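Dear V.,

Thank you for sending over the compound details. I've combined the ligand you provided, flavin-adenine dinucleotide, with the protein sequence from our construct and run the structure prediction for the complex. I'm sharing the raw inputs here so there's no ambiguity about protonation or stereochemistry in the SMILES, which I know was a concern on your side last time.
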Amino acid sequence: MMQDDLRRQPSRVDGRAKVTGKATYIAEFRFPNMAYGYLVQSTIAKGKIRDIETAEAEKQPGVIKVLSHKNLPKLAVPTPAPDAIPRPFYALTSDEIRFNAQPIAVVVAETFEEARYAASLVKVTYDQAPHATDLRSVLGSAFVPGREQPDRGTPENAFAAAEFKVEAEYYIPIEHHNAMEPHATVANWDDGKLTVYDKTQGIQGTTGYLATAFGIDRANIRVLSPFVGGAFGAALRPGPNLIVAAMASRELKRPVKIVYSRRQLATAHGYRPESIQNIKVSADKDGKLTSIIHQAVHNTSAYENFSEGLVGVSRGLYACPNVRTVAKIARTDLQTPLWMRSPGVVSGIFALESALDELSYKLKLDPLELRLRNYADTDPETGRPFSSKELRECYRQGAERFGWSKRSPEPRSMRDGKYLVGWGLATGTWPASQAPASARVILNADGTARVESGTTDIGPGTYTTMTIIASEVLGLPIEKITFVLGDSDMPPTPGQGGSTTTSSVGTAVKEASELALKALIDAANAKEDSPFRGVAFDQLVFEKGSVAVKGRPETRRSFQDILKGHSESSVSVLHRSTPDAAERGKYVIASHGAQFVEVKVDEEIGQVRVTRVVQGTAAGRIINPKGAHSQEMGGVVWGVGMGLMEHTEVDHKLGRIMNPNLAGYHVPVNADIGVIETIFVPEEDKIVNPLGAKGLGELGLVGIPAAIANAIYHATGKRIRSLPITPDKLV
Amino acid sequence: MRPFAFKRVSAPADAAKLVAANRNARFIAGGTNLIDLMKENVDRPDELVDISRLELTAIRRTLDGGVSIGALAKNSDTANNPLVRSQFPLLTQAILSGASPQIRNMATNGGNLLQRTRCAYFYDLGTKCNKRQPGSGCGAKDGLNRYSAVFGWSDSCVAVHPSDMCVALAALDAVVNVRQPDGKERKIRFAEFHRLPGDLPELDNTLSHGELITSIDIPKSNFGQNTYYLKIRDRASYAFALVSVAAAVELDKGVIKQARIALGGVAHKPWRCTEAERFLAGKKLDAAVLKQAAELAVKDAKPLSDNGYKVRLTQRSVERALRRAAKI
Ligand SMILES: Cc1cc2nc3c(=O)[nH]c(=O)nc-3n(C[C@H](O)[C@H](O)[C@H](O)COP(=O)(O)OP(=O)(O)OC[C@H]3O[C@@H](n4cnc5c(N)ncnc54)[C@H](O)[C@@H]3O)c2cc1C
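Below is the predicted structure of the protein with flavin-adenine dinucleotide bound, written out as structure tokens.
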């Protein structure tokens, strides 16, 4: 999107608070008489804790107590059988070590530094058991969780018979979210009631988790998370910080704060699993796909079955009559993986879109043309129509802006001085879901509105988007609306994941706002002289904080006037929106994108720079243009990280993550990022939700790693099938 | 971190004496490395002697026409100093390729020489490391060693020295001026300042406890603008070198009078390629001799399981850095 178009669009409503430090993140909250907890983590990957010696630590100044499974009371959850699956992990509740750097004790002290130092003096002895953390070493025991997907058509026969085909293996290492804000909790028990400030993407989930763990009623728990400094999936499950802070506070009868250090953070939450994908694709001489066989395996933990089902994209992205997908998982002695931005889809697309690129060279067909020849006008799996799908337009506009027609097809054929230039592309898609959600809209007598919803804003701009939606419906300027979130006392919503918040919470805000206006008119009509009596609601125009009958400006009444005489002096509406499941069920509903990438490669030293990206996006109605532009740019930046540098390094001998810090785990810096252009193609969708808006926070990433790998092949003639594509793989 | 006493001194002699008197005392200058190590409990001093206010910040011309840089001058001030820029652009280039502007604004020259390895095992108290805990073993040698040394390592340690600045100083044959606790001064040639791990990997260099670096002298040389610092890393900026090369050539009518090649990211100390340097001396400058020199530079490399690429990358980088330095 062009800067000029964006300049007139609303900015982040919380932007000023964020850049002036007024936005308060979890580590900044404090209660009177608060103590600080610092976690002690295991140094083995599997086995049992023999003993935890705390005498030395407890002698240190300021130390209050060292807590562990040895002295903490049991939680209300039943102890599962030792080999039960799932066997959810509750930190500090048993002597069992399930993964390296597992939290096993917490030192609570008067200050953070006292706690941290004493934590280094806690001595732990173990009975160690052999572990396995390398996916390749456990492939033999990989299994399909749940049901196997039946084949579509006869993929093996079609592949065997095909003239043009590719078979290849693709690898993606473990990656970590590495959000700026560390996981943190401040917990306080007061008179049987628990209040926590917690970094979370799901206020309700966190509340429920605590209720189960401590066996108390949800009504006695309050969870707050007003600002989240990036999460990307990492806070979709409660971290050990939450349960440990709550246990410690209950035990010591003081508020307790736990903030993860950067080094510790690698095991505060799960990660994108390590995956190996084998793909076979074939086509006839016209470039029509005849088969896709996509088999993937990724790791899970020894105690839970986590599956990203990363082969799903191969069933729906292209029209292909013969498809087999198999998604297996294999147990490792690492903690359970977790959803990380675009989970499953970005990994599956890396393999599928790389393989398609390989196929295009076999066919001597332009990679874009190959995609167009296999365009799916209806869902290839079910035959259902798409609720809307402007992917063709993404390809067209993206290619035009990028200059794709000037691409010379041969690898190594484009240069810029000493650099080899490569152009690559990939298709992106992301399901556009909607879930039930609630919101409250309050119209105040002073002409302002307050909108409440217990969702979170992990960075995409939820505060802003919800304010824009309320502003549009209520006919109130943005400055007159205060949107608040992040509190379990507010109307419940689903967790913030899967790019569904605008769709779900936005619909609740829209509908609650409409109902609030109806209630406002009811309030007006309570008076005899109301000009709105007997007028149909759709004949009213709400604008600039006032309402009038269409075409009759003399009936204009401001919200203030209406509410002045009103007994409650405000209108308050609580509403729960639900998706129209029957209608949605008739369609396949998804966002789409086409992602074009230019790389310049300094071949001698293996250096790749992504110099230009054009991101074509079809995601229904764009409600918050600046936010959407940022999200799509952020997706590209993430894709550059995943494509070129991100890699959690595990020492498999130790079963331990060895680069748990931002010096060792590289994410892109400014100098890594070239020009990024975003295009939002118009797309009308009356099915997805009443807003017509689809999620886009994850879409922007999905094709980028594949497009980068494809561009590198075009530049160098080297096909790199293993991420990240670091200099060592190119020299 | 461990509780510590904090003392500020105003005379170099006091600083050296204070630290010499306590095995667990450390000088603190910019603090950009030491504080990190303390937070991670890798280093646990109980006394810090703040030397950041000592008047050892001068950058001046020396009698022999070289430049002396104060131990407490900031990395950024050093890189941007006009004398350094004009006379030793190699040093400017090397410093500016390291860390970030914010860190360079805090980091001092003395601290840069003494920054410790970034080996992941050194930093992780849950693993073995002979450098951190002598006798415990080396986790990296048979573990993850993509970043580790390909030259000069021993069975007890495969860590690399992380500095960029030091690679340039090694190529420029700098001399480190040191004040001893007894008040005496001594000079250490740069090649002898850092050491190889051998059986004592806990020692990064040849300083004794309590010895204070006061300045670093860079002797006059005739390389002029024929120098180049090349740094290869996993991202465009703000990353330690996978491999770096400081190259300098003195040219006389198309003949290489002398050449210097120092490598970073490949050994426990900045690594001088003396054989390649000798090979180049007196040769007529052309692309072929530079290529041969690059081959010689990696002749004795001994890669570990994950870092064979460093040998290829070093060879290519040496060749390119020499070409850039010689401007061919
Ligand atoms: C995130 C990050 C990235 C970095 N990236 C790079 C990079 O890419 N390239 C690079 O070269 N460097 C890099 N650095 C390292 C940086 O250059 C060093 O941390 C810095 O130079 C150390 O200087 P200081 O003054 O802060 O030292 P301090 O931390 O104060 O001290 C370091 C050590 O030197 C000792 N010491 C300090 N001054 C003296 C003296 N005068 N005499 C005797 N002993 C002394 C101290 O006792 C201590 O043991 C990076 C650092 C960070 C934190």
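A first observation: Chain B touches chain A at residues 1-3, 39-41, 118, 120-121, 123-127, 139, 142-144, 146, 230, 232, 234-240, 242, 309-310, 312-313, 316-317, 320 (CB under 8 Å).

Warm regards,
I. M.
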